[in-house]
Records
---
Amino acid sequence: MHERNTISGAGWIGILALAVVLLAVPHLVSFSQQELLVFLTINVLLVVSYRLLTLTGEWSLAHVVMMGVGAYGSALYSKLFGFPVPLAMLAGAVTAGLIATVLSFPLFRMKGFYFLIGSFAAGEVIRLIWKRFTDPFGGPKGIQRIPGFPEIDLGFLRVDFYQPENYYYFVLAVVLVSLWVLYRIERSRIGLTFHAIHWQDKLSESVGIDTFGHRMLAFVVASFFAGVAGALYAHYLSTVNPNQFNVDTMVYVLIWTIVGGTSRWYGPILGVIALTIIDEVILRGIGADQWRPLLYGAILICAILFLPNGLESLVIRAGEALRGRSASAVTGAAGAEQE
Amino acid sequence: MTSASKISLNRRTLLCGAASAALMPVVGFPRASFAQEDVVKIGFLAPLTGPVAAWGKPGLDGCKIWADWMNEAGGIEIGGKPHRIEFASYDDEDDAGKARAGATQLIRESDVKFIMMLGGNSWPGVEEIAARQGMLVSTLLPSDLTPNTETLIAPCEVHPIYNVTGVDWLAANRPELKTAVICAQDDALGKPSVATYLAAFEAAGIEVLGDPLFFDPATTDFAPVMTQLLAKNPDILCLDTCYADYVHPLCEQAFQQGYKGQIISCTLDFYQRIVERTSKEFMEGVIFQFPDFDDKALNDPRINFRKPNDFYAEYVKRYGATEWSAVSWEYSSIMDLWADAAQRAGSVEPADVLKAMKEGGKGKHAFGEARWWGKDLFGLDNALVGDWPVVVIRDGKATIAEFRSIPDWWDKHGPLLIKHMTDLGQMWSQRT
């Protein structure tokens, strides 16, 4: 099938509108919501990278730990070895990719439910290593006073990345580039092969596709970008500890992904944005701090009952409705002309 | 005009109405307000949900009583003018990221003059913003203190150092007990507490059998943990500073596995539930460190906490006796200290209050006169330390057995505590 690569006029308007929103949003929200915006943008990268792995049909419980590998790696490279922070971030993400490469060998001997459990065990081993070895990982208290992203001082312009609005723009740039790379991977031959492995792995093998290699590739690339997310997180918050990357956090990633939907690249993004706004802005805003877990749970149940295909199904339905309306308008206009 | 009978409620109207109602407080209701200069806002940044909520929420409940009483009495007089106290709370879920967002909201949006935190996991997220804004912050966990945290104080609970008083009292009153085992969750709260108990047992001549047992915080089945501990046949079972979610099943397991010896623990939150699930006989003599405030011993003139018995009665009336926990009174006692310092300073500005608070190197701690201390252990003297109660369960009820002096113990055994803290990597200079 020939893939359409051109963007329509309406598409360009949509992209422009989105760009304006993304650039303007820090100036439209409160100070504390600016902080949330930074974490939300990082979490967008986390869930989209997770989706890349799920394309091969495997659901991992180690993805948040891979984020932690990036965070710990970047923190240690900058703090212990004196790497400049941008280089430490990259090195942290590469470390996450390398750890994923090593883990691939035992983990991809398993599939489905067994892979899920295996990935959980592998993640716990890494997390317990952080806890057990106070030197260099800081034990249960983790690593503190991690250097922040360096200031930019051009005399006439000073950018302090401790300020959330400045760090947001930096994170946004990194995340947009990462999303573009992940999107291109999915739309490439490799991405199609991931889909093929998901739906017909035996058939794929029979036509010469290296299923192990492709699964490993998806795991490594997803872990690399999770590592990027972790590095962005660590240098903003100045602290990492093993509890931040435990299974509870992983459950949130799963919820965001499932509620958003996984059949489109934007599904998990919708999930993480909608649920974060509900939990952190609306429920806190109405003063329901202590009721948040209960209300959040109720909203999740409703989402699963009424939107079993995720929030993305709303976008798909809206798109179909719009196309249907414009098609009927065209048909109607043509009919009128004939008369 | 539309008559009431003609109004129909379809699903769309209902959903729109519900969404609007939900969003109204976010968008903003018109609110009745007092003159800004007469209201002082205090931030409460602690876990209100999740596994550590037991050390946050009861404290906020106590603060509500404190504020109601204070405001009913006309507020705090600062600079010759009465001021109302309002609390602004934020649930940090014991997470540094949430704590950072919360601190930003409290400082930059709510304009609070002082923030009370549980500390621990959440403090690193707040450290830089507090330093940049010069915000006075209190923690219940002095292990957050370092030489750089000049605006962070531990004015109530010098956790875990006060645990030495329980062991000291036990050694003096039950000298026949010679061996102990220790277990704790493997986290930032468990480890310094284990170091303290190791030092206290060593100072008291009590042998600790084997290494302390650190279990993962994700543990839900405590039967194997208890089996392993009881296999050493100890005289004393030490539950360290375990969260309530661990202390309860650990006690139940000890009961079910037939343990008959002495139990000592830092906290015993909601102990009535443990008594119900085990027995009064089993719990008789259990030692911990946090009294119920209906205890008559708290009416002693040296106690600085205002009307402790009335406070407990009001707390029980509002929230129920089983909701009382170790922290129910602690944040309120910090507020007593803050209010006293603000009155003396004639200002609510954080730097002025801190200066007044530390004037003369002494302060009015809830349990009596205390001194600002901590340089040897935390790198600066920002912990207020004095006497601390030893609490014993008698006939199913927590009772203060005695107040013991932490500084006296420290003067005799300080190097021992530093040795065990160093062995477990808990000295401020060892924290990465």
Note: Chain B touches chain A at residues 22-23, 25-26, 48-50, 57, 89-91, 94-97, 100-102, 104-105, 108-109, 121, 124-125, 127-128, 132, 186-188, 190-191, 216-218, 425, 430-432 (CB under 8 Å).
---
Amino acid sequence: MSELKKRAEGARDKNAVLGPDIDLEEYTKGPSDYAPVPSISDVPESYHDGFLNIGVDVSEKDRSGSFVQVDSSVLCSTTAQEGLEVLGITDAINKYDWLEDYLWRLVSVDTDKYTSRAELELSGGYFIRAKKGVKSVYPLQACMYIGEDHTFQNVHNIIIAEEGSELHIITGCATGKHIQNSIHIGVSEFYVKKNAEISFTMIHNWAPEVNVRPRSAMLIEGGGVFINNYICMSPVKSLQTYPTAYCEGKNSTAVFNSIVYATDDSNIDVGSKVVLSGEGSKTEIISRMIAKDSSSVTARGHISGTVSGVKGHLECNGLLLSQNARIHAIPELNAAAEDVELSHEAAVGKVAEKEIQYLMARGLSSDEATALIVRGFLNVEIKGLPDHLRREIQRTIKTSQDSFM
Amino acid sequence: MLLIEDLTVEVGNKRVIEGLSLHIPEKETHLLFGPNGSGKTSLIMAIIGAPSYKVIKGRIIFKDVDVTDLPTNERVKLGMGVAFQMPPVIRGVRLKDVLRIHTESLSKGGVMDQMNKMGLSAQFLDRDINYGFSGGEIKRSELLQLMFQKPEFTMFDEPDSGVDIENMEVVGKALGELLEGRSGLVITHMGYILKYIKATKAHVLIDRSIRCSSDPQAIFKQIMECGYGRCVECLS
């Protein structure tokens, strides 16, 4: 048994530090024998509904490529631009010996039982790479779909932007309407090489009884930029994720924007952690959390500055739309060097009465005023993205809002 | 247009208006004077129907409709409007989102004409409402919104405070335009604005109620010369 497998075995039953514990023995591996198709337009129509709210476009208009995985089967992986690569992770490991060096380098295999299972019972994932100097004209799209009940989907994704390249990815996760209880474990490791850029927009649209445990980390080299946009607008049983970006390179940048609209009795614990250890590195973490019904949201944020001259800002705003919902904001700043500039602002509360009153004095009803304030609250200015991608994200937020509010 | 009968209003457990009566006939503009904390803003908030302003006693009749228990937006539908003194910042809600409540299309020339008239540049449309607005910009943005709302009866809470001399004319003219042929109630401390509006009557609010009503120029002159101290003396 390899060293890696041994460590994974050792963590098989290791509880995670955060999030409610999940008994993984309840689930079996989702089917891995679905027939692959040549392109996303050939994916069976029964899945198309699930693609609607997660930014996945079957027509591939304004897309540089597609990856679709249903349960444990990779249905397609295609690219439309020279220099961009999209492969199933297993195919990629077989193709590239060097990929070994990238697997489990940023996320430890023995972090908890979820990372352990991703190694021991892998059910897929993708490998996406932009070769040196290649800039993706349109975003690549990736979709993870759970179609079978009581199954696990344990994926491992590797994303690499080689030196001077630019990679934009929209990834959507969804489940079939009938899914009662399933679990998605996703390990994602991002490598932003020198002067490269990755923007990664993830849209979650799970079902009310699905558990989700992403485990992500990013390494950003000199002059590199990593932008993460996370959008979750639909109910989920429990979701816990706390990605860590390591800004090791000189003047590297990490940006996290998170938008969460929690409903029903969803238990959502999301955060972003950034370690600024590269000279002149900087970060901005912005989150907007809305909690409705009897949902519970924990919004974490952590910035560590370990060399002088780094800058970080953390902004966490929460809006409570019901008496029974709760939002717990936990912003943390850790300055471990001189001349480190870290700041945070956090505000959590109900919609301010005077704001509703103001809009009512302009003629809106109380409900209309609240809706406009909520829309405004979610209207996060996402910087550093190509225009069409920014519009796409705004459109997705709007579509999900229309369907869930 | 507006008839207030023996109105008593509380905020929390604090009485802010007590036994106040006021009548503003159609096409008349009245002024409201009074020292700080006397209840002027509270009166406007009660007339527009802010939920935290509880009517304990009395009635508010607007265009022959008893609006005492109507929500704010219903009163607005009937034709009320208000320019707030200190409107709240609403992050993410832009000025154009609020203008859209009353105007279908913002791309038409009309909006830009009005903005130019109010001395607001086009970029204001995309600003979060009241966020980082200067005192004068807040006033002009409030008036701009009312230009599109076109209320039959408009209340102005100190439209001239915090406005520099250069912008006073802009604000004054806008006020004059909004009140032309319509009705209004204007809270003011300063005389400049009187040049632009044809007020028919002024009221002095002291200690939660209207204590004196008379000719606007006469009351203003009196206050300028002797302050509200004289009013109190005169009343006691």
Note: Residues 242-350 of chain A form one domain.
